[in-house]
Amino acid sequence: MKESLVQDKKMNWGEEPEFFGPRHYFRESLIVNQLKKRVEKGAMILDAGSGNGSLALRLGEAGFRVTGIDASDAFVAYAENGAKQLKLNGAVSFQKGDLLNTELPDETIDAVVSGEVLEHLEQDEKAVREFSRVLRKGGFCIVTVPAHPHLWDKNDEWAGHNRRYTKEGLTNIFSDKGFKIVQCHYWGFPLVRLFHRFVYLPMVNKKIMSEGKNITQEKTLFPRVLKSKKLHLFGAWVFSFDHLFNSVPLGIGLLMVARKKL
User: Fold this and answer.
1) Which of 14, 39, 126, 127 is deepest in the core (most CB within 10 A)?
2) Under a CB-based contact definition with an 8 Å cutoff, are residues 88 and 62 in contact?
3) Can you give the pTM of this predicted structure?
4) C-alpha radius of gyration, the chain, whole number
5) Which domains does the chain have, with CATH numbers?
6) Residue 214's CB: how many other CB atoms inside 10 A?
7) Which of the 8 DSSP states describes residue 244?
8) 3-class SS of residue 101
């Protein structure tokens, strides 16, 4: 059976706050900024587990050519519509696929990005092996994952996570698959962690309760203000304060840059 990122939940895919909120925008910015520093515009990028397409579209706007692969038909349709609206059809494409077997040719991708995906997969090591297969020698892989198993909470259960990672555990997976670790650091302390605890988790709890009571999407308990682009930009600017503490092992996530060995 193929791995799937889609969980059996009463979600309106693409409409949840984690796909639009300031923390999501900030986390994607970490990936975008790392890619811009290391890969030239026009390079071919694989967005592995592209979800609603927000990261792939940002990369397309930045001048990269992007293929997004996701296991959800609904996500692929949603992302394709976004590319059409932004007139990025020629630069950004999406397709349904299996991250353990993307069916892409060997060594044809310049960089792989994967934001908050590996924790959903039962066989994360096989996905990393596939990343290595499709990457050209010297190509970069940039990923974010949730950090610290002891931080497991209701959001992990609701989102369908299989694990949270230690720094050593994440880097070992990539080192064993032919990658050299360029950098790996925590992110999300203290401001993002406070946002998660006092803003996001209460909304998740309300969402779980609403699902149990079969409350309709029209009565959603997630505030629409989280979709505000201005809020995303302002939130990302505020959260950038956390960069001062990337070396402190207290962040809620890990950002890793790895390079396929020559």
Assistant:
1) 127
2) no
3) 0.89
4) 17
5) 17-260 (3.40.50.150)
6) 7
7) G
8) strand
- Here the tokens at position 183 are 């950098």
3-state SS, residue 112: strand
Q: Which amino acid is at 182?
A: V
Q: What is the pLDDT of residues 17-73, one digit of tens each?
A: 455 689 999 999 999 999 999 999 999 999 999 999 999 999 999 999 999 999 999
Q: What share of the chain is helix, strand, coil (3-state, %, to 5)?
A: 45, 20, 35
| Cα–Cα distance measured from residue 161 to residue 143, given in angstroms and rounded to the nearest whole number | 16
Query: Does residue 182 contact residue 143 with C-beta atoms inside 8 Å?
Result: no
User: Tokens 């803003």 appear where?
Assistant: 199
If you ran DSSP here, which 8-state letter would residue 262 be given? -
As a residue count, the chain comes to: 262
Report the alpha-carbon angle 177-179-184, nearest 5.
115
Count Cβ atoms within 10 A of the Cβ of residue 86 and give its class: 0-12 exposed, 13-18 middle, 19 or more buried: middle
Which DSSP state fits 196? I
* Long-range CB contacts for residues 206-213, cutoff 8 Å, separation at least 24: 207/158, 208/154, 208/158, 211/9, 211/10
What is the C-alpha separation between 151 and 146, in angstroms, rounded?
A: 9
